[in-house]
Amino acid sequence: MNAVWPVTLTEGDLGLRPIRVRDQKAWREVSSRNRDWLRRWEATVPPPPPGRLAGPRPTFRQMVRYLRAEASAGRMLPFAVTYRGRLVGQLTVGGITWGSMCSANIGYWIDEAVAGQGIMPTAVALAADHCFRALGLHRIEVCIRPENTPSRRVVEKLGFRQEGLRTRYLHIDGDWRDHLVYVLTAEEVPEGLLNRWRAAVSDRRHN
């Protein structure tokens, strides 16, 4: 794992690179401006058991240090998403499992100002190809709330197949929420997911 991380992936004006402490100002600006856009889909921490106090929220620096440690341990790839050199979102490959499973999950968010321009499908395709080809993973999952139509469109455009529903799967926006499971395995994209996405974009432009 450490042989392929840190890594920077690019496709045209889009880039994926490791998130870093000096991203704090840009990250906070984008997050603050998109608070209403993102709140419904953001993970939250469930209330503590009776008699226990909730811990303080981590600072940005603490979050980045945690993500770096997880990346160094081979459990995560924490990317900043950039577009024309500007930070516009985040994509995290998490839950990396080796052994007989060789799987991971992908989560992402993007600035509403640039949503709908194909940025996130391209980012997911770049990350998935890196997972399949450089890391040797076999299976990628993306779990999405059924109500999150824009996020579902991202994976549906890329050809992820819907595999089922996980009931009350993650604590999101203050409660346990159901999530649809979208899946892709390496055998399903022998040509590479980015090549599949490029072909789909080209077809749309010519039809």
TrEMBL record:
Keywords: Acyltransferase, Transferase. Residues 14-187 form the N-acetyltransferase domain. Belongs to the acetyltransferase family. RimJ subfamily. InterPro entries: Acyl_CoA_acyltransferase, GNAT_dom, N-acetyltransferase. It comes from the Bacteria. Pfam families: Acetyltransf_3. GO terms for cellular component: cytoplasm. This is N-acetyltransferase. It comes from Peterkaempfera bronchialis. Coiled coil: none annotated. The lineage of its organism: Bacteria, Bacillati, Actinomycetota, Actinomycetes, Kitasatosporales. One of its GO terms (molecular function) is protein-N-terminal-alanine acetyltransferase activity. PROSITE patterns: GNAT (PS51186). The keyword Acyltransferase applies. Signal peptide: none annotated.
